[in-house]
């Protein structure tokens, strides 16, 4: 897609000659090209709800577009929500939206045009280019919390922790507690700091964000990450002790926080509690059209590696994953679809998925295709080898890439699953030297960890 050119002004400037007709602002003061004050208010509320992971943003955007069908940024934001469905079937619809919005270029601000360009890159599955576009946007409109959150979300899926941090730091000069939404910025910064290893700073920023807005799930999540990385399991389980009723009005992201809570219970040596959380909470967000494969598969595999029989729970995940083998929207999702299929013994379907990945990487450009070729395909080869019981092959594949998994996306905690698979394969495949090295690395990072100390000792001299 060709980026937009031209347009009404050079940035986010508010020109008086437009005051009386078609310009309003969002809660942070960013100019919105719409003639409807009601539409502008609904758009701002949609952003607030988006930050709090509520179920209502799409409905608010629909209503905003009913008030003003030409409200370009509302239509763009709605396209972003379609992309978050992570389903290839919606790509033509989103691309059509982008083409339509580009016809309005001359009446839009540069900030609005950059939002449309970012959506276009995203719909072309080049999330790195989408992130670069949001970064450019934030240089001219640092109060654009929507661009900041969209960048934060998608940069997360490229595994580039330092980028998460630097982009927010580049905008922080424009923010303080007087600007609406500041707590969301604090929460994003807390998470970025945590992923960069600045745990004390991260915890402070995260707790300050939650104190300002207890509804901010991302800030709650950021503190949870700190507690996990510091092995503060009991504190973490208390921090994330929220019921389904507590979060009844939140979107499926709530299941990821329950996943973290389940990991805390695993860390405390209570796999039964973790499995109960899987059954009662994580699976509660599944529907006929949506199954949360990533969180559920990741938890089930950890439980299995601790010796727990998870019975037939892989089957639902594999059934859904089988319908998504040609998606290739995010490498992170594809990796977990592969895990679910391989763990359920769907050998032929896994082969079809791997062949589809190879074809996708060969026939496409952009970040997702490149990451698929360089990292996802070998990772999935390692997962398949592990699930087939070929542990030496698993080690041969995963050992050389164990420190280069960031392009798969996700957090350090999420990607740690693949490190645990390698460790388990090294033990089961009698690759003793590799296992000893892996456990030594763990103990150097977390001295005194009883679990890894026992594993290290069990290897013998």
Structure description:
The protein has 461 residues and is mostly helical. Among the domains are: 33-158, Serine Threonine Protein Phosphatase 5, Tetratricopeptide repeat (Alpha Horseshoe); 286-430. It is built from 23 helices and two strands. A two-stranded antiparallel ribbon has the order 1-2. A hairpin with a 5-residue loop joins β1 (23-25) and β2. α1 (37-51) runs antiparallel to α2, α6 (127-140) packs antiparallel against α7 and α13 (254-267) packs antiparallel against α14 (271-280). The N and C termini lie far apart (60 Å).
How is this fold's topology laid out?
Elements: E1 23-25, E2 31-33, H1 37-51, H2 57-67, H3 72-83, H4 91-102, H5 110-123, H6 127-140, H7 145-156, H8 161-171, H9 182-195, H10 199-212, H11 217-229, H12 233-239, H13 254-267, H14 271-280, H15 293-305, H16 313-322, H17 331-343, H18 347-363, H19 367-387, H20 391-401, H21 412-428, H22 432-445, H23 450-458
Antiparallel strand pairs: 1-2
Helix pairs in contact: 1-2, 2-3, 3-4, 3-5, 4-5, 5-6, 6-7, 7-8, 8-9, 9-10, 9-11, 10-11, 11-12, 11-13, 12-13, 13-14, 13-15, 14-15, 15-16, 15-17, 15-21, 16-17, 17-19, 18-19, 19-20, 20-21, 21-22, 22-23
């Amino acid at each position: 897609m060709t980026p937009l050119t031209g347009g009404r002004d050079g940035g986010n400037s508010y020109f008086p000659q437009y005051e009386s007709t078609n310009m309003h602002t969002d809660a942070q003061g960013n100019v919105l090209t719409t003639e409807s004050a009601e539409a502008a208010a609904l758009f701002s509320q949609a952003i607030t709800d988006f930050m709090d992971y509520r179920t209502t943003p799409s409905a608010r955007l629909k209503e905003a577009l009913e008030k003003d069908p030409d409200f370009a940024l509302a239509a763009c934001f709605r396209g972003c929500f379609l992309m978050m469905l992570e389903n290839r079937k919606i790509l033509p619809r989103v691309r059509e939206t982008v083409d339509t919005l580009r016809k309005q270029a001359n009446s839009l601000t540069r900030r609005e045009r950059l939002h449309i360009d970012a959506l276009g890159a995203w719909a072309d599955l080049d999330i790195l280019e989408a992130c670069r576009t949001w970064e450019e946007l934030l240089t001219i409109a640092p109060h654009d919390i929507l661009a900041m959150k969209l960048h934060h979300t998608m940069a997360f899926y490229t595994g580039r922790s330092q980028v998460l941090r630097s982009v927010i730091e580049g905008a922080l000069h424009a923010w303080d507690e007087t600007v609406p939404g500041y707590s969301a910025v604090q929460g994003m910064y807390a998470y970025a700091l945590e992923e960069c290893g600045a745990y004390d700073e991260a915890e402070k920023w995260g707790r300050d964000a939650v104190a300002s807005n207890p509804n901010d799930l991302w800030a709650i999540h950021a503190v949870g990450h700190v507690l996990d990385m510091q092995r503060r399991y009991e504190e973490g389980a208390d921090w994330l002790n929220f019921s389904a009723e507590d979060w009844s009005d939140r979107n499926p992201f709530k299941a990821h926080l329950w996943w973290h809570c389940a990991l805390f219970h695993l860390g405390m040596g209570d796999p039964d509690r973790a499995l109960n959380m899987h059954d009662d909470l994580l699976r509660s967000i599944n529907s006929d059209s949506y199954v949360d494969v990533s969180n559920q598969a990741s938890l089930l595999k950890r439980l299995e590696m601790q010796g727990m029989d998870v019975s037939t729970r892989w089957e639902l995940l594999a059934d859904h994953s089988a319908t998504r083998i040609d998606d290739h929207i995010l490498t992170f999702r594809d990796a977990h679809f592969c895990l679910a299929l391989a763990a359920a013994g769907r050998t032929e379907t896994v082969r079809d998925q791997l062949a589809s990945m190879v074809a996708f990487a060969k026939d496409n450009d952009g970040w997702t295709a490149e990451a698929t070729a360089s990292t996802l395909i070998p990772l999935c080869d390692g997962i398949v080898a592990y699930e087939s019981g070929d542990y030496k092959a698993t080690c041969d594949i995963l050992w050389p890439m164990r420190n280069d998994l960031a392009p798969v996306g996700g957090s350090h905690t999420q990607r740690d699953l693949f490190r645990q698979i390698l460790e388990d394969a090294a033990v089961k495949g009698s690759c003793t030297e590799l296992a000893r090295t892996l456990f030594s690395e763990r103990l150097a990072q977390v001295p005194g960890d009883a679990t890894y100390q026992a594993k290290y000792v069990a290897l013998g001299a």
